[in-house]
Specification:
It is built from 4 helices and no strands. It has 57 residues and is an all-alpha fold. Helix 1 (2-10) packs antiparallel against helix 3. The longest helix is centred in the middle third of the chain and has 19 residues, at 21-39.
Length: 57
């Protein structure tokens, strides 16, 4: 599972030669997003949204 998800973000890097620097940035951002998702896997997106807008205490 981990390898499958991370391989999607790493796949952007070879496209640099065709599409330019934006693919490097996209690959880096996707990789960071995946890593942060694994680190904070116990926190749901709904909980983060509620904490940000202080909806439920």
């Amino acid at each position: 599972m981990v390898g499958g998800i991370i391989s999607h973000s790493i796949a952007f890097f070879p496209f640099y030669f065709v599409h330019g620097k934006s693919m490097i940035l996209l690959g880096i951002l996707c990789t960071i997003n995946i890593i942060m998702g694994y680190i904070f896997s116990a926190v749901s997106l709904i909980k983060l949204i509620c904490m940000k807008y202080k909806l439920f205490g």
